[in-house]
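Table S7 (text form). Paired inputs.
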Amino acid sequence: MNRIITLLLLIIAARVHAQVRTDTFSFSFEGKRLSGLLDLPGNKPPGGLVILVPGSGKTNIAAESWSGLRRCFAEQGFVCLVWDKAGCGKSEGVFDNQQPVQNSAGEVVAAITEAKARHMAGSEKIGLWGISRAGWICPLVIEQIPIAFWISVSGTDDKETFGYLLEKNFLIEGRSEAQTKMLMSEWRRGIEIARTGGTFEENLKATENLRNDPFYKYMSNNGVPTKEGFLNWQKQIQAGETVIDSETDLTIYVRDFDKLLSKINCPVLAISGEKDSQVDQQKTIALYRKTIGKNPASSLTVKMLPDCNHSMFKCKTGGYREDLATWQPCTGYYNAISSWLKEKGFAN
């Protein structure tokens, strides 16, 4: 009997998957043609359009890691749109790992503008799904254009997250509390030297142990900084292009971020993993609870998933270099999204 039920469920799932149609989509941004994929539900008129906003690094939207999420939204009756960053996939241009979040927000707005200009199905009701770095991008988009909902995954507070990533992963990789404290002290001292006008040679001397640590080497060009890179970064700090918080020595990505979040005017679902070793989710959720919902048109729902890493995959340690034999979505991840969309009346 159980085998029959399982077979029926597989048949039903296959029929649902077959009803999802995938097309290509492209739009122009700053003179480049960015290319993506558009998943359309074929069994009924779409309930809206969901834009997927990726985190840091290069993209490959055709990869299996994206397909489950795309299918999750399409099966809930949404048109789902995602594109590769410049220089990735079939998108024109050169990938820029230093692309400002404000510029990335402009890219999302350009895609939405194109979708509306084409009268794309579902474009009268647009939602955002964004992971990690998109925690800065999505609020900037919401400030510029009407958005129906925002799903924030492994979101951020106002400051950069590399310090948390380093400290958490030093401990995961076996450094003692004392060793970790020393390494983080050197990391902060290096930033302080740059911020206060110190020299490249001073920076090298102050960060010798840090630069020789295996994990730091893995994360930072084998631990070998260049004088040109140091001076360029210092110049950006002195010019105000890069804003450093003097108390924490962390880069502030969006000024007055708390005020921006307080103005959010749509429902927000915040999902994160308990073993996120890249972003301090306790700080992010505390900030969200303090700000989102001040606008009466907004509300906040929080879902924290166990045994779940920053990328929303099942894990043991959550470490940056953890070898995941199978890239399985966290238990309850897709269900949390679909249930919330139904609860808020966005999906049937």
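Next pair, protein 2 of 2.
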Amino acid sequence: MKSTLKDVSIVIVTYKGDELTKNCLDSLEATCGSDPQIVVVDNSPSEATRLLVASYPNTVYVSSPGNPGFAGGNNRAMPECDRPYVLLLNNDTIVRTRESIERLVGFLDEHPRCGVAQGTATLKDGKSLAGCGSYLMPFGYMWAPGFGKEDDVCNATAVRFSAIGFFMIFRRSILRNVGGSLFRTHFWCYYEETDFCHRVWLAGYEVWYVKTPPIIHLCGGTVGHFKHVDIMERYQKNILFSLNSNLSLLSRLFILPCFTTLLAIHGLVHLLRGHADVFVADMRSLASPIRNRPKILAARRQISRIRKVSDFKIFNAVMRLPPFPQLVRFFLSNA
């Protein structure tokens, strides 16, 4: 039987963002009615947010004290989700037509090996793309084709290494096959969806970008509450944790020296430029696998239990270098 929006739970995590959340919920109500279940996780619990959520049909409010971040907030929503498909949606997004979500549901119905899919999103100007998934590069970093511009590569549905978490749907049933949980809670925020997608690949499923009518992503509605250097450090630490945990020994021997060398160069260049805070953040990131060794070893044991696919097979499907001009810009931006 063909799935509909009644088969979808939509999870929205908010942190001091009632205005953005209201706009997002208004757009869902106008386009989807009461068909999907909506779960709003409040990472800064307030009575105002609870009352806001209560004013919408078929919507569940989850109080999440202590701000566990995007990762922890979404994890807390999972027990409330009662539909076969779960859509993660940032609160700073606007859904303009129900077809944006229906196409994702239809794609999962038609492609049983697809565990995760991301739809199309534009930035607030309504024209520039907000990304269409990411490829993995041989030195451990990712690149997102089409971000910030109109790009032909995003006009076609295609396989990707990672979906982007602001508009990402997955089969709830796969959670038991990827380690039992959605995100690694200690990631807090940044790279958690890529680590999840990597585990999805390892468990024998695929990740796809699906061309849909675009939603609007306002970008950075919550990130403005936090310092850029702190965000960068957390992102780098999470990448290193994920690569150390999910890659086989042979892959680690090749990819990790490349990644750490680039990160060390980035820190040294910024030190010479007088950006000591960036240097310190990079050095703390480089040291993080040592401090996190017990967690990494536990994660490796988990991966050995769920692994169904070799790294080589995954790399063959989703490891790509960007066009040369983009590659040059990448290295310059990391210098």
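The CA atoms of residues 43 and 261 lie 36 Å apart.
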